Amino acid sequence: MIRHVHLDPRINKSLELLRRSGKKAALAAARAEKIIQRMRQGHLVPDRIGTITKHGELRIKGVMKYNLGAGYRLITFKTGRRLFLLHVGTHDDCHRWIENNRELTEEQIRERCNEMCICPAELDPSPHPETTAHPDEDIDPLSNATERDLRKVFRGLVSASQS
């Protein structure tokens, strides 16, 4: 599970440029911002917060590319419990970025990125049991079930197994 999300400061400039570059680019920027927002809210399973490219990225170990549509990509790097958002742009921009940054070390990436605050309560004021509970605690899915609900469920299970 991801515990820390880091953002390269150049991404904000790239997103601003995409927003001003046309309709398709603006849609791609909005998709990238949605992925970043979901990360800030604590949705930190990387392959579930956005569409990942079909073939992934083999040139740099740990790099994952998100398909933002219309030939735009978001490049991330995952190591341990840290996820780094490194670059956003066209497919060709991302290809050049990867080629030019193949030799980057994890330490160099950490130095140039800023850690984002992961604040589920800040963006979604309604408390949810799954976000407020301690991650190591077990959540009882039946804690809100009434006795009547339980009788219906278990009566159905018992009668289904006897037939």
Walk me through this protein's architecture.
With 163 residues, this protein is α+β, with helices and mostly antiparallel strands. It is 42% helix and 19% strand. It has seven helices and five strands. It has helices at residues 10-19, 23-40, 91-100, 106-112, 120-123, 129-132, 147-162; strands at residues 4-7, 63-69, 72-79, 82-90, 114-116. A five-stranded mixed sheet has the order 2-3-4-1-5. A hairpin with a 2-residue loop joins β3 and β4. α1 runs antiparallel to α2. The chain is elongated and about 65 Å long. It starts with a strand and ends with a helix. 20% of the residues are buried. Residues 121-137 have low confidence and may be disordered.
TL;DR?
The chain contains seven helices and five strands; from the N terminus they run βααβββααβααα. The protein is of the alpha+beta class. The chain is elongated.
Write the layout of secondary structure elements.
Elements: E1 4-7, H1 10-19, H2 23-40, E2 63-69, E3 72-79, E4 82-90, H3 91-100, H4 106-112, E5 114-116, H5 120-123, H6 129-132, H7 147-162
Parallel strand pairs: 1-4
Antiparallel strand pairs: 1-5, 2-3, 3-4
